[in-house]
Amino acid sequence: MTKPKLSVIIVAKNEEKNILPCVESVAWANEIIVLDSGSTDDTIQLLKQANIRIIETDWPGYGPQQNRGIDAATHEWIFSLDADERITPELASEIRSAIEKNQFDVFDVPRKSFFVTKFMQHSDWWPDRTRRLFKKKSARFTDHIIHASLSSNKTVGHLNEPMIHYTFHEYHSVIEKMNRYSSGSALDLNNAGKKSSLSTALGHGLWAFFRTYILKKGFLDGQAGLILAIANAEGTYYKYLKLFELQNK
C-alpha cells in the first residue's frame, strides 16, 4: 500500500531569521510550499538556495493566504506551519503515524511558546491546542485578516507531541506585533459588525489582563507572565480603540 503524502504550507514575510530552521524542521515532508507576501530581506534568497517551492503573493489576510496554500498543495494531507514554528522529530514521527492510521481527517496539536525569556507554562499559552494537520478536502481557514482558524465539520483527533513556537525574542517585537495585530483585529471586528467605545476598549483591556494573569494563572509564569498579561491588556485595549476610531471616521 502506498503511504499517504504530506504537504507543508508556510506563510511568511521578512522571516530571514526563522525561515531556514522552520523548513529544516519539516525536511522529511513530501512537499514544502512557502507563500511569501513581499519580503524585502533575504527570505526569498535563502529559500531559493534551499530549493524550496516559493509562491510570491500579495497579502489578503492570514486566512485567505492559508487557503491559497491549501489550493496550491498537491498532496492529500496538509500541515499548516508558521515561520516562527518548528516541528520536533518526536512530533514528525507522530504526524507520520497519524496519517498512516487515517483515523481522523483533522488533528490539533499542542503548541509550546517562547516569550522573550522562557517557554510559558500558563497564561493560556499552554497547551494552546491549534488545528494544523488535515486532509485537503476536509478543512479551510476562516477569512479573518489576523486570527483565522481552521474550520471543519470533521471530528478532530489530538496529537500529543508539542510544536515549538518562538513567538518573541525581544520586547520591541512584542510592541510592533501588538500594533500590527490590533489594527488587523479591529478590521476583522468591524467587518463582523461589532461596535466599540472608549469604555468598551478599557473594559476589554482590563478583562484581558485579569483573564491572563489570574484566571489562566499567568502569575505562575513569574515576571514573563506579568509582562505578557500587560501586553495582552494593551493589545486588546488598542484593538477596540482602533475599532472605535474606524466607526467614527
Please state roughly what percent of the residues sit in beta strands, choosing from under 5%, 5-15%, 15-25%, 25-35%, 35-45% or over 45%. 15-25%
CATH class division of the largest domain: Alpha Beta
Q: What profile does the largest beta sheet have?
A: 7 strands, mixed
CATH fold descriptor of the largest domain? Spore Coat Polysaccharide Biosynthesis Protein SpsA, Chain A
Q: Indicate how many domains the architecture comprises.
A: 2
Task: Please name the defining characteristics of this protein.
about 250 residues, alpha/beta, Spore Coat Polysaccharide Biosynthesis Protein SpsA, Chain A, 2 domains, 7-stranded mixed sheet, 4-stranded mixed sheet, 13 strands, about 40% helix
Description:
- There is one protein chain.
- With 249 residues, the protein is an alpha/beta fold.
- The protein has two domains: 6-167, Spore Coat Polysaccharide Biosynthesis Protein SpsA, Chain A (Alpha-Beta Complex); 170-247, no CATH class.
- The chain has seven helices and 13 strands.
- It has helices spanning 19-24, 43-49, 62-72, 89-101, 171-191, 198-215, 222-247, and strands at residues 6-12, 31-36, 53-56, 77-82, 85-86, 106-109, 111-115, 118-119, 130-135, 140-141, 150-151, 156-158, 163-168.
- It has a seven-stranded mixed β-sheet, with helices on both faces. A four-stranded mixed β-sheet has the order 5-13-7-8. Strands 10-11 form a two-stranded antiparallel sheet.
- Strand 1, helix 1 and strand 2 form a beta-alpha-beta unit.
- Helix 5 (171-191) runs parallel beside helix 7 and helix 6 runs antiparallel to helix 7 (222-247).
- The model has no long low-confidence stretch (mean pLDDT 96).
